[in-house]
Specification:
Blueprint (H helix, E strand, L loop, with lengths): L2 E5 L9 H15 L3 E7 L17 E6 L2 E6 L9 H19 L7 E6 L2 H14 L3 E5 L5 H5 L7 H15 L3 E4 L2 H9 L7 E3 L25 E8 L7 H9 L6 E8 L3 H11 L4 E4 L7 H7 L2 E5 L13 H7 L4 E4 L4 H8 L3 E3 L5 H13 L1 H18 L2 H15 L1
Parallel strand pairs: 1-2, 1-5, 2-4, 5-6, 6-7, 7-8, 9-10, 9-12, 10-11, 12-13, 13-14
Antiparallel strand pairs: 3-4
Helix pairs in contact: 1-14, 2-3, 7-12, 10-13
Length: 404
Amino acid sequence: MKNILFLTHYFPPEVNAPANRTFEHAIRWVKDDIDVTVITNYPNHPHGKLYTGYQNQWFFTEQIQGIKVVRVKTFLTPNAGKIRRSINFLVYMVMSIWASFYIKSVNVIIATSPQFFCGIAGALISRIKCKPFILEIRDLWPDSITAVNAVRKNILIRILIRIEKWMYFSASKIITLTDSFKAHIVGYGYSECQVKTITNGIDFHRMSIEKPGLDLFDKRDRFILSYIGTFGLAHKLEIVLRTAELLKTQQDIHFLLIGDGADRKHLETVKRNMSIDNVTILKLQPKDKIPYFLEISDAGLIMLKNNTLFKTVIPSKMFEYMAKKKPIIVSVPKGEATGIAQKYNCGLVVQPENPAELKRAILKLYHDPDLRATLGENGYSAVYQFFNRDSLARKMLELILDVC
């Protein structure tokens, strides 16, 4: 049996994309007789409040579907603000290194970044234990924080970039979520053959609706455009509200925004000031409720700010819409995500931060049910063949065993 030590900032019962990816991979590895230990925080994302049933102890160990989960003392803070979030990252780095001393049987260390302090912890633990280190890159950091103007480029950012390079070269192999991330790392001089792209995908097992009669939202006879995910600075969701304002006379078109994040209060304020009633904003929903909202949606909105960095990103939520045979409208810079929509003909691509163009795409889908059906079927076929979590987890495990 091989023993994997996995470091991640987020893990279920948290429901964001990094938590889902790690968990859905790990439960499959456990079924393949792999021993998986995860070091993570106490669940508190995104509000910085402990989930029911947890206490912020120094260490706590639990079993989740065969995965050994070690939770470490967490600096609790909402998913907003620079200083407190930075402290949160640093505390996790220190605590995860401390916790690793109590985990004896380890063949390989994996850390998922961002935040890259998690990656630094993985690199240091691998040196302490003299075991190989695999680094997973889900986003380019610190580039992503400068892209949303969270931090200006200065001497601190230059220092962080140097640390970023050190972290890359500390890894035996690197797994990236997109080919653009791979090109970025290879551009630093890292060996191309040591970087493998394993995209995000979908777990078809969790796409079924356990309670089909669940009445969480009154769809009525309306055409529902939904956005489900993080309300972050990178997503520029105010554009959805501006588009809704352009369509407010179209009474049967409705926008449904579900999630939470740093931009939520701003969105609620803008919505109140605009006095629009064709937008509903709901709080973050439990994972088992998401398939219901996907099912009642007529199309999904994939939104990102108009910044060149986001050409490299593939928002994981697009795969969920595709798995439910829903067309997507991809309002992101032309790159990885738009390439998927166009290659598999599963959605419409519009210029980001352009309400008028987004409106035209919405009306095109609204007036053409046959187009919606075709795009939905194409998306399902693509995600089943190429973005299925079963095959992606197997591909990653093969790489891990090769490193071991």
